[in-house]
Amino acid sequence: MSNAVATPPVDAGAGRTVPAERTGRTTLSMNQAINAALHDALAENPRTLVLGEDVGRLGGVFRVTDGLQAKFGADRVFDTPLAESGILGMSAGLAMAGYHPIPEVQFDGFTYPAINQLVTQIARMNFRTRGALPMPITLRMPSFGGIQSPELHSESLEWLFAHVAGLKVVSPSSPHQAYHLLRHAAQRPDPVVYMEPKSRYWQKGRVDFDEPGNLEGAHVARAGRHLTLVAWGAMVSRCLQAAEAAAEDGLDVEVLDLRWLSPIDADALAASISKTRRAVVVHEAPKTAGLGAEVSQLITERCFGTLKAPVERVTGFDVPFPSGSLENEYIPNIDRILYGIQRVLEYRRG
Amino acid sequence: MSNAVATPPVDAGAGRTVPAERTGRTTLSMNQAINAALHDALAENPRTLVLGEDVGRLGGVFRVTDGLQAKFGADRVFDTPLAESGILGMSAGLAMAGYHPIPEVQFDGFTYPAINQLVTQIARMNFRTRGALPMPITLRMPSFGGIQSPELHSESLEWLFAHVAGLKVVSPSSPHQAYHLLRHAAQRPDPVVYMEPKSRYWQKGRVDFDEPGNLEGAHVARAGRHLTLVAWGAMVSRCLQAAEAAAEDGLDVEVLDLRWLSPIDADALAASISKTRRAVVVHEAPKTAGLGAEVSQLITERCFGTLKAPVERVTGFDVPFPSGSLENEYIPNIDRILYGIQRVLEYRRG
Amino acid sequence: MNTLSYGRAALPDAELVRLFSQMTQVRHLDTSAIAWQRQGILPGYAPMRGQEAAQVGSVAALDMSRDFVFPTYREMGAALAAGVDMGEYMATHKATWNGGMYDARETRVTPIQTVIGGSALHAVGWAHGQRLDAAAAGADEPLDLPVALVYLGDGASSQGDIHEAMNFAGVFETPTVFFVQNNGWAISVPTERQVAGGSVAARGAGYGIASIHVDGNDVEAVVQATRAAVAHARSGAGPAVVEAMTYRRGPHSTSDDPGRYRSLAEERRDGGVDPMDALRDRLLEAGALTAEDVAAIQSEAEAFEERVRADVQAQGPRPGAEMFEYVYQEMPAPLREQAAAWREESDHV
Amino acid sequence: MNTLSYGRAALPDAELVRLFSQMTQVRHLDTSAIAWQRQGILPGYAPMRGQEAAQVGSVAALDMSRDFVFPTYREMGAALAAGVDMGEYMATHKATWNGGMYDARETRVTPIQTVIGGSALHAVGWAHGQRLDAAAAGADEPLDLPVALVYLGDGASSQGDIHEAMNFAGVFETPTVFFVQNNGWAISVPTERQVAGGSVAARGAGYGIASIHVDGNDVEAVVQATRAAVAHARSGAGPAVVEAMTYRRGPHSTSDDPGRYRSLAEERRDGGVDPMDALRDRLLEAGALTAEDVAAIQSEAEAFEERVRADVQAQGPRPGAEMFEYVYQEMPAPLREQAAAWREESDHV
Ligand SMILES: Cc1ncc(C[n+]2csc(CCOP(=O)(O)OP(=O)(O)O)c2C)c(N)n1
Ligand SMILES: Cc1ncc(C[n+]2csc(CCOP(=O)(O)OP(=O)(O)O)c2C)c(N)n1
Ligand SMILES: [Mg+2]
Ligand SMILES: [Mg+2]
């Protein structure tokens, strides 16, 4: 058997024709929304490819690529050998050949073997070649914790990606955003890391195909006056819950879904916190040198004069992500977020 | 030829006997001081090993391991094949066998291929095994820019190492510190990343073998009253120069050499900034999500009530480290540090 | 290809019976663990049905008083054979502690590895340490070294770390045995789309490493082949690769659905004879076992499973404080503060 | 071993003369670049003396109108042969722009790679793209694919990425030629302590990849061998490894001191006959060249070197604004702000 030769797609030729644009509204789970976005990206651009471990016949361990190989054929949606550096390095070469690869890393924690290709090659190729060989690569991976996974299946890597010049980083918090942000990312000429909050894959939500909304920058997930919770990915819904709980105490909490972790929307942070004058940043990654430090410092730089208290961070601890039975001790829960809010409210200048 | 069999050391047996303790003071360049520390670590503990690319016969591309193989033999100081993941993975195995490996990565930017072994294995093995298999590994690498090196020979990776639970990170700024901090690191039961500021290798300084001074936490490199510059590695001497320049304008600037980048000495930051009430953090890495964000936020958390202005960051830009002819545009220079100081001094609450 | 030949001298019946009995325990525990997952006792599990001969047979070739084993997440059978407490082993699947609760130093079995290919270099480094120990002790040739045996799958053979490990092992001539269980699949990807050239053992040749291809479903052959590889490594002659051809008869994990990528007919065809059945029939035929013996062995396995299940069910979550305690040997002050803050907030709740 | 045989049909004299002339340019420029470094014109340089035949010969086997070359930092000769402007090439050594100032898309030569092994997977991905293009266009077998040729050293063969690249190339049967210049050394580490098993080409066998061992100092043999590898890849038969045995006659780089790890006597012994001398003598003997021709070729090379030197000396540093400009195709707002702040502070100074 020649591996190089594609198995013909079930629905041959489908990949070459743009299907009727999706219109209207529907209800989808996040993994379905991502699947739809991948489908439409493949349909729209014949040079878009999906590759990774088990993305083909299996449809991905979370079924995110379900049906795509059957529809678009094994030349456009294909399984690779088990090697993450290989997947990203091959994607770089495909981009040089004019393709738009959408590689998947099967789990967040298996990005580490590919960091060299990501940081020294993909992120820098446009720079190194003075724009001659851009890298329109959309790197997807299931991210963050929350589903009691085995070791290294619950990492939060935004702190790493966000530091790397040449990359952009985005994480959706709802099916609607998941669909539109992925379509948007897959049309960019620069590499974008797209972090999928795996604990939200099965959460259903309304997707409006006609009204994507603004796809750049942060998004106010809940407006409020007294304090701003800043979060992304799976922590957005947790912050919304915390805001509800705080509302019972008469506290009107704003929740800012940062969405883009690189570039960070500092204007949105400033707009929110100039109003609320108090902020808590929430993330799952360990605290030290996590992205919360950058977000806090950006807020402080912009709002020093109006801030009532130092920005508080409610985050994972400076420990390896623990095993499932301890995950609720590690991931910020509603109580810890409320304690963080309380510390900010009770802060008195020393 | 069997590679596995060691070439006998020139000075056979020297590795087994602890040489007369070094005493008194002497003047050494930083690479000589590191060499002396490696020598003494090898002499002190027969289970200490030095390994890496070209560390043996060549004595390292910066001559930091010069003479060590001749002295201690090719079983204890040995060249590896050209593979950084291999070097760190092998070090993990050697640590499991009761050795204390001191691996070298030849240049900062070639740590990327080893990130998986460093982050998922070395940093977590003590945790994973509940203390049964600790990883007393001291990972050395020439770090930072300043000598017009080729691409990827000028990276600043402290932002990455400092985030990783299970690692400790230190960077010396003088020959004296280089000697003592390395001795100290090499005696620790935990993995320590030791970042050598390559632009300072040839800078001479006095080393006092009798008085190591405190080896934990930060170090006040220059006392001052009006503002604190926080820095590490090669930026310490640049900040000292900036402080001298500022002194001409009657400004009394404190320079805090952070030294340990994990754990960060928050008490020392608080002590300094409660006094000066103003701070500028200086580093070579890109600004966004660099360690300056964490340092700034720690200062803000501890000193919010007394801070006169938001902590200012003078850092590399959010771009790949550029080629040599642009390096002075990229690395914070004295002018940029002075501008940063000025912004802090001129800050008025909006 | 630098093929290592190995003796075909038959194993004594008593030894085969011991192996059969161990394999029976393994099979029963494996089958049960899948049931435990369905019953909610375990959040997940990675079945190894069909790989009992490869795992139990390879460990039988080791001297666990001095050798060291580097497993992946699918080596329950190897861990059992190496003497690991199965309650402590299952702790990783119970989500009690990642890597398991057994003492890696005491058992001489490294913690369960989730990173594909992550342990191979450790097995090279550890083995090189044995060489250095021998050199420091002035040991004579041929050496008599402790050996590191690292497990890897066909999928793992694609990882760069495996290549670096084999090359390092070749260059330093470390006493490392790379034991490959080629079970036909890496989740949904079949070996022919994974392993260019088709043979992991053939890779060994590229590094000048001795290698052996063996029927991984024949426990006697596995013992013989692994003994040869271990003896080679032990003597100081360098590393060896053993490629044991077997078949993953179950799903990749309890959350996998193999029906999406292979049919039952294919499973039946590719899986061939079950190694358990083959060994049992052979021992019955040879008169080494009677039907009653088989039944007794099965009952023992059932009793064993019950004890392990009780242990697993009794296992509560670890105290949260351990999250902080085990990160370092020397806990840094900021982490101590985080632990204190965590305790305060947990106590309040 | 899956050895690819190749035709030994002699190259026409005219072609050999053209290659000799190119090699002479390369040798002269290489020698000069070392001098430039001593004179302070370049901050550093990586000499390739002794590898002219391997580099010029391998490019001669390509069709630069459609193939693509993936060099390391030591492929000045290959870049020259591929038509890269040498002033733009030297920009990397002048510290003007990392990777060089030449247009990678126009020249079909990727930027100078400093990460050992970093480009091999790109050559696999790019080549796979050619296969996909052919499939989408419904091309007939045997295919006539554009080929990716990636250079690597003996030292690079130790990197995990090389293994992953060869395996991917094997699995996807990409038209990739891995051209290994085994020059005996990776900085101070000799091949025998680097390459377990001793042969990089032998690694190919482990991936079912066709491979060729060739005398890298014999330009004719290099052309023939590489043509065979390229033809194999072009036809769709899959990747190939060419291992060209040569010798790094100079230091690793202008900051290296080879005296620390090899003696002059060893250099003389291991280096053998200089490939330049061998080819010149052969062409003189065959009457394909006269002594006057040789002198003329040398003068041309000298004139060429002067032009390149003038270009390099004329090269000023790039405007600092380019640091910001080329990071992205779509510059994000915070970076635009940083660029503005940078400009303001630079203008003040
Ligand atoms: C570095 C890394 N990448 C991906 C995964 C996800 N993953 C877990 S098991 C597996 C397949 C492994 O196949 P193989 O090596 O053949 O072992 P088997 O599962 O067949 O025992 C994959 C892709 C992982 N655990 N680690
Ligand atoms: C990933 C990585 N590790 C280390 C280095 C430092 N380094 C530069 S060249 C070199 C030796 C390369 O040897 P080889 O591959 O044989 O190529 P040659 O220099 O002989 O052309 C080393 C170790 C590097 N550039 N990249
Ligand atoms: Mg398998
Ligand atoms: Mg070489």
Automatic annotation (TrEMBL), chains A, B:
Region (Disordered): 1-21
Transketolase-like pyrimidine-binding domain location: 28-203
Pfam families associated with the record: Transket_pyr, Transketolase_C
First-tier enzyme category under EC: oxidoreductase
InterPro entries: THDP-binding, Transketo_C/PFOR_II, Transketolase-like_Pyr-bd, Transketolase_C
Cofactor: thiamine diphosphate
Gene3D superfamilies: 3.40.50.920, 3.40.50.970
Protein name: 3-methyl-2-oxobutanoate dehydrogenase (2-methylpropanoyl-transferring)
From TrEMBL, chains C, D:
Sequence similarity: Belongs to the BCKDHA family.
The encoding gene: pdhA
Job description of the protein: The branched-chain alpha-keto dehydrogenase complex catalyzes the overall conversion of alpha-keto acids to acyl-CoA and CO(2). It contains multiple copies of three enzymatic components: branched-chain alpha-keto acid decarboxylase (E1), lipoamide acyltransferase (E2) and lipoamide dehydrogenase (E3).
Entry-linked Pfam families: E1_dh
Cofactor(s) for this UniProt protein: thiamine diphosphate
Enzyme Commission identifier(s): 1.2.4.4
Biased composition (Basic and acidic residues): 254-274
PANTHER family membership: 2-OXOISOVALERATE DEHYDROGENASE SUBUNIT ALPHA, MITOCHONDRIAL
Highest taxon in the source lineage: Bacteria
Class in the EC hierarchy, top level: oxidoreductase
Region (Disordered): 249-274
Name the record gives this protein: 2-oxoisovalerate dehydrogenase subunit alpha
Keywords: Oxidoreductase, Thiamine pyrophosphate
Known catalytic reactions: N(6)-[(R)-lipoyl]-L-lysyl-[protein] + 3-methyl-2-oxobutanoate + H(+) = N(6)-[(R)-S(8)-2-methylpropanoyldihydrolipoyl]-L-lysyl-[protein] + CO2
Dehydrogenase E1 component domain ranges (all copies): 23-303
